[in-house]
From TrEMBL:
Domain HTH merR-type: start-end pairs: 1-70
Alphabetized Pfam families for the sequence: MerR, MerR-DNA-bind
Stored InterPro entries: DNA-bd_dom_put_sf (IPR009061), MerR-type_HTH_dom (IPR000551), MerR_fam (IPR047057), Tscrpt_reg_MerR_DNA-bd (IPR015358)
Molecular functions (GO terms): DNA binding
Entries under SMART domains matching the protein: HTH_MERR
Listed name of the protein: MerR family DNA-binding protein
UniProtKB keywords: Coiled coil, DNA-binding, Repressor, Transcription, Transcription regulation
Species whose genome carries this gene: Brevundimonas albigilva
Coiled-coil blocks: 80-107
Length: 127
């Protein structure tokens, strides 16, 4: 695989400016361009997919940078600690979302039972 930045962006499902942003942040390499054209290979495509997957898991770009550095050093303990911290953050967020869902269910039930007066859902968000 030898593609331009546009081909790399397409392969990673991002825009060219996203690749450039990752390069400025030090997450992606900027290859030398023979004849003014920079070419990217499979290693860069893999790295871009890793970044996108890690973002989808909720890691920040700073954490992703650390994960990439850890991969080079094979620091499994630190990578595991970062993953466990992210899991704990997700558990908190999931609990918050479940509480919101339960509150909405109660309001929807009240709304279905109410025949007169203001809608309980609208009243709950109003005050």
């Amino acid at each position: 695989m030898s593609v331009t930045i546009a081909g790399l962006a397409r392969a990673g499902g991002v825009g060219v400016e996203t690749v450039r942003y990752y390069q400025r942040r030090g997450l992606m390499p900027t290859p030398d361009g023979a004849g003014g054209v920079r070419r990217y290979g499979e290693a860069e495509a893999r790295r871009l997919r890793f970044i996108r997957s890690a973002q989808a898991a909720g890691f920040t770009l700073e954490q992703i940078g650390e994960l990439l550095a850890l991969d080079a050093g094979h620091d499994h303990a630190r990578a595991r600690a970062l993953a466990q911290a992210r899991i704990a953050e997700l558990d908190v967020r999931i609990a918050e979302l479940e509480a919101a869902r339960n509150a909405l269910r109660r309001l929807a039930k009240q709304c279905g039972a109410a025949r007169d007066g203001p809608c309980p859902i609208l009243a709950a968000f109003d005050g």
